[in-house]
Prior knowledge:
This protein is an alpha/beta fold. The chain has a domain of 84 residues: CATH 3.90.1180.10. The chain is 29% helix and 18% strand. The chain is built from five helices and six strands; from the N terminus they run βαβαββαααββ. A hairpin with a 6-residue loop joins strand 3 and strand 4. Helix 1 crosses helix 4 and helix 3 crosses helix 4. The longest helix is centred in the N-terminal third of the chain and has 13 residues. The radius of gyration is 17 Å and the shape is globular.
Amino acid sequence: MKTFVPKKDDLERKWWLIDADGKVLGRLATQVAILLRGKKKPQFADFCDTGDFVIVINAEKINVTGKKLEDKVYYSHSGYPGGLKSETLKDLLQDKPEEVIRRAVWGMIPKNKLGRAIFKKLKVYRGPQHPHEAQKPQEYQF
């Protein structure tokens, strides 16, 4: 049996619009990662980029369960001694709510050249406005 390799002509990339208002962060990120990778498509291949484009709006209205607002901490390091920085989920949601969704989705896709190409198809916006009306995105319900 030969390995199926999807060609560029076989792929039909769609644009999906997801409203994050009232959605739980982890469940939303899972669905976004599945759409970005193209795992629900019949021509899915794990070594090719077969996924769709995803637009997430209302990132500032995302919900989390439990005590994650105070307990969840995001770390970053500059690479220099003493360069460890930390920020709680509550602070990050106030300053950059788009970054919360990006980090959650990044944790669910491969960390390689393919994963970086897949991640570029994610567009996250703080409010209900987005500049992708020309692509005619379809509303995605889950």
